[in-house]
Amino acid sequence: MLGTVGKASRVLDLFTSQRPEWGVTETSLELEIPRSSAHDLLATLAETGLLRHAEGNRYRLGWKLLAMSSTVLDTSDVRIHARPVMRALMTKLGATVHLAILDEGQVMYIDKLTAAAGLPVPLSAVGKRLPPHCSAVGKVLLAHESRGTVSDALERCGMCQYTEKTICSADRLGFELAGIRRAGTARDTEGAVDGVCCHAAPIVDAGRVVAAISVSVSSTADRRFANRYDEVVRAAGVRISRGLAGAHREPMRHAVAG
User: Number of structural domains, the chain?
Assistant: First the structure.
């Protein structure tokens, strides 16, 4: 049974924005499994709703995954406690605010709020993944991981260049991560999108960094208020962390009272 679940997971991992459709033969070759096994896996996943049939005996991800992802997001403790803080930041700064985690070496955005006049950030969206080296949230998350985890993430994701200012050197990134640990916040100066600067801070739960919050502003605004953005986003991270800690204490108080 566990082997079957593992194979099904590998099938689902094949589907990406760049390649949203797969057929039986392609799946068989990619996963190096018999064509009959690939057919059975795809058909079974389609029967459960995790995949759906497309034209030409091909498959796409199923709508059931959308409902499941909504459940994950709606019941995420860090997202629940971060949302009001994110709204306050968005209103106060007129900025785009992100909430992200590190998943399999990649940054995954789990929430995003954009003010009416906020700066558009086309690379980010809820559920979207990016390499961690090019963003403030990615760097602040990496800064609190072990050297081995950082090395694995960079090896897995690479260090592709998004702009002229993207950090593409592991040594330079390592030096910056050390500074981030000392400062408590991370900055990205047009490393992912030209004209966009970000400031991020860690969110701590049970003694470890579980997520990061960031604000994205124009490079013009950043030149004037960079230090202020650091202070505001650091305070936001602390506030969310305290909310998570309080949520963990609340059931204990009820248990003692009972």
Answer: 2
For residue range 80-97, what is the model confidence (pLDDT) as tens digits?
999 999 999 999 999 999
Place of tokens 């990016």: 130
| Residue 221, burial from CB neighbour count under 10 angstroms (0-12, 13-18, 19+) | middle
| Residue 115 · residue 86 · CB < 8 Å | no
Q: Which residues contact 38 (CB under 8 A, 6 or more apart)?
A: 11, 24, 25, 27, 28, 31
Tell me: the pLDDT tens digits for 32-47? 999 999 999 999 999 9
- Report whether pLDDT(71) > 70: yes
Give the Cα-Cα-Cα angle 223, 224, 226 (nearest 5 degrees): 70
Assess if residue 57 is contained within a domain.
yes
Going across the sheet that includes 186-189, the strands are 129-130, 106-114, 96-103, 208-218, 196-205, 186-189
Residue at 141 is within a domain = yes
